[in-house]
Amino acid sequence: MNKKFLSAILFGALMVSSTGTFVSCKDYDDDIDQINQKLDGVEATVADLQKKIGDGAFVKSITPTADGFTVTMSDGSSTTITGIKGDKGEAGKDGAEWTIIDGYWACNGEKTTVKAEAVDGKDGQKEVEKREDGWYLWNGTAFEKVTVDTPAVVGVPYYQEDATDPNYIVMHIFDANGKDEQTVRLPMTEGLAQIAMLSNKDLTIYYSIATADKALQAWEGPKGAPAKGDYMITYSDDSLMVQVAPNNYDLSKTALKLVNSKNEEAPVTLGAAVAYEGLYTRAAVSANGLYQIPFSIETITDEIVKAYSEVDGKRPALALVASDKVRSTYETSLIIEKPESIDSWSFYINKKNNTPNNRIEPGKTGTLKVNGENADKLYDAFLTMDTKTYANAKADSIKYGIKTDGLTISCSANAKYSLPFVVHTLDVTGKIMKTEGVYVQFSEEAAESTITLAEQAHIATAKVEDQKLVVDLAAYFDKMSEADRILWNADARMLLNNANVSFVYTDESTGKEETVDVVSGLIAGFTKLKKDGKTEATNNADIAKLGINFVNNYGEIMLGNGVYTAKITVEINGENGTKETQTIVIPFTIANPTTAEITSQYTFDPAFYANGVLTVIDGTSIDLSTMISVKDGAAIDYTGLKAAKELTVSGTVLTMGADAKANTAYDVKGLKVTYLGGRSYDMPAFKVKFVDSKTYIADMAKASFSLVSGNAEDANSDKVFYAEKADSKAGIVNFYKVTNAGGKFVADDKVVVVGFDALVDGTDKTFASDLIKVEVSEKNDIVVTAQKRITVDTNVVVPVKLTVTNADGTNATVYASFTVTVKAYPVQ
After folding, report:
1. Of the residues 396, 425, 442, the one at which a domain ends
2. Same domain flag for 230 and 169
3. 707 with 819, same domain?
4. Are 519 and 503 in contact (CB under 8 A)?
5. Which of 14, 225, 299, 579 is deepest in the core (most CB within 10 A)?
6. Are 515 and 552 in the same domain?
7. How confident is the model at residue 698 (pLDDT cuts 50, 70, 90)?
8. Does the keyword Coiled coil belong to this entry (predicted)?
9. What is the CATH number of the domain that holds 718?
10. Per-residue pLDDT at 26
């Protein structure tokens, strides 16, 4: 076969930038949408093609134009698509079309020696691949390099026939840089254009081989005892979910089968497709064109078991074929598995609001079903009356016309009360069990009513005793008269153990509202409470509130997003065995903990932390883990630790860098506190400051003073004494002192005023002023003399450099300063 669907010029014009791999029609709309986002200037034309194909048209021909190509559809319409960058058609001269001629791959009509081998596997093995050194073809076991006239130019798009189905072509497209290769599979046929399986769930068949076991050979179920050596088979009745294009195509009358890549049919029988009208929960999939396809299997042989092994990688992938013409990609497989035996069974007849029950209306029939995931492993079952649990069960079954057929129960119109049954089960492994005491209630369906309470709010907390929500039931009871409440007290039963919890939230990644029908692992139980909301109510008359007790630390549920809804069933007994069913709906939210509680989980060392600043004394680094402590059950996560650029970060340690300065506070952020079942919360940013300690401190609090300006003739001067206190020397008004770190005064014979210098950027800067002169007199007293008459009061800061002799004879330097306010000279 040699089909030349697209010209090479088409691919020279069509260059896209995209992410993801498009291989299946199941995401056909998604494919087109993603291409639309990237094709600058051709979004509308591609969308137009999408609509036409969805309406049932197909690509009839593609003709090159001067700057692109024209696509002609089967409905007679045409659409022109130009190159993204305005490239002329001749830019596509290196494009390649790979077709199949007489079973061999051919490039632009040039036949190769490599057979076109269909790919067997779900990974989507490519058949044609372009590499920097040339073209490679898949020969069934490996890629084989071939030489053809058309060069393998890097980045130039190409296309190939689909070796598994000639009704499709596979386009290989690159981004604007010639990289990020993507593939798009396109239909080239009329009628049914595409079919895709929407779930990659494999079809599983369970089996075992019957033995000569006496109990097994004496089995009396509907299927009878299996003969020794026969295959016992069970499987789930789950259907395949598929989508077709065009959306309005009727698949119900189309012959369907599952085949492997060698076109060998799988040993299952597919039933007629049934239109699916429900909500399929995959994003961006239209409800139109959805079908369910039931399947069954009649027999199993040793060869089938071997061919469809339960071991991954040893069974073929399967495609769905419609009318031997259109097929899906290989999205599923058949697994034939030998399971473990089942240890226990539970059953139900009906489910309402996700709550199972075993009720049959008088005069009608009901069938017991397996409750749980092992339903597809039940080979056979039947019922008998349980006279061991209730001696009169057999007599009552005759009285009420109760008959059984397998797991189906029928009854007469006068049937009532609850009767126990024994369920006899035979699982697919050959294990026989009896489940006694399975009660079935024969009664009319209870009248129902729903009462929805106002939304309740709970704030998550680490205090286990507060991990609960107290719901006021006043809105429920206020609807009752006094007489109604008396009857309720006598006849009502709250089925707290069967409560259902659902959840509606917004997916932050998509912005879409999502629903979880059944939430587990959130509520530990319910408590009926009195009016005080604390004391448990032991009788109905005292019930006023309901306590919702959450599991420790709220399990693994989501906090701070969405609304949970608890549904409590209340059964009220009526006359003649009737019941009224009420549902109390309690919507509630669980917010994240408050900021105050989050911050209470950790504490900075109070000896070094104040007002948002952690101060490090006499050091150039600090291990934060030694400065922050946590409560039991909490931990600090340092993985996101970040600090100002002047500091370096290593694990939990911050270190001053070359540009860091002492006495400067630097920002620190990125820490999280983890608690409440492993949930993480951001810690507020704080600052770290590195400081040097001082052995001696110069106290200049009483040193500053005022001095009238003047010249040498005026001789205006004053003195700042070195003294411990004002009365230490006669005539003291202004004084200063030096103390050690303990606050003890240092005697004047240990202190020397070296000069009047200030420390600026590590260097002494000597005091200079033309307004005053500063000198040292005896015993470290400082004399200040006015030098110039001025007309405006002026402050002059006087720096002082001192040395203090330590006990070991070494000296310590201390810098300080005081202020002299030079007053204006008096004028007339």
Report:
1. 442
2. no
3. yes
4. yes
5. 14
6. yes
7. very high
8. yes
9. 2.60.40
10. 40
Instruction: Look up the pTM and report it.
Output: 0.44
pLDDT of residue 249: 74
Q: What is the pLDDT of residues 417-474, one digit of tens each?
A: 889 999 999 999 999 999 998 989 888 876 678 899 999 999 999 999 999 999 999 9
Does any domain span residue 147? no
Give the separation between CA 341 and CA 338, rounded to whole angstroms.
9
Q: What is the mean pLDDT of the chain?
A: 83
What is d(CA 546, CA 587) in angstroms, rounded to the nearest whole number?
13
Does residue 409 surpass a pLDDT of 90? yes
Residue the block writes with tokens 């069990």: 433
My answer on whether 412 and 539 are in the same domain is no
Identity of the residue numbered 650? S
Identify the CA nearest to 14 among candidates 205, 194, 220, 155. 155
- Residue type for position 157: P
Query: Is there a single domain that holds both residue 174 and residue 273?
Result: no
Q: Which of 589, 588, 562 is nearest to 508 (CA)?
A: 562
| Position 190 pLDDT exceeds 80 | no
Same domain, 224 and 329: yes
Of the candidates 696, 724, 700, the one whose C-alpha atom is nearest the C-alpha of residue 805 is 696
Cα-Cα-Cα-Cα dihedral sign, residues 708, 712, 718, 719:
positive
What dihedral angle (degrees, nearest 10) is formed by the CA atoms of 450, 455, 456, 457?
160
Work out the average pLDDT over 195-218. Answer: 86
457 burial (CB, 10 Å; 0-12 / 13-18 / 19+) is: exposed
pLDDT tens profile 287-332: 457 888 888 887 888 888 888 887 777 788 888 888 777 888 887 8
Question: Collapsing DSSP states into helix, strand and coil, what is residue 576?
Answer: helix
- Our CA dihedral for 123, 128, 131, 133, rounded to 10 degrees, sits at 140
Phi and psi at 449, nearest 5°, equal -150, 155
Which tops the pLDDT comparison, 189 or 198?
Answer: 198
Residue 571 and residue 662 in one domain: no
718 falls within a domain:
yes
Question: pLDDT at position 398, please?
Answer: 94
Phi-psi region of 791 (alpha: psi -120 to 50; beta: other; left: phi over 0): alpha
Higher local confidence (pLDDT), 489 or 287: 489
Last-in-domain residue among 527, 558, 587? 587
Q: Is residue 171 part of a domain?
A: yes
For the ranges 46-55, 288-297, 513-522, the lowest mean pLDDT is seen at 46-55
Same domain for 375 and 491? no
- Work out how many domains the chain is built from and give that number: 6
Parent domain of 553: 448-587
- For residues 661 and 631, the answer to whether their CB atoms sit within 8 Å is no
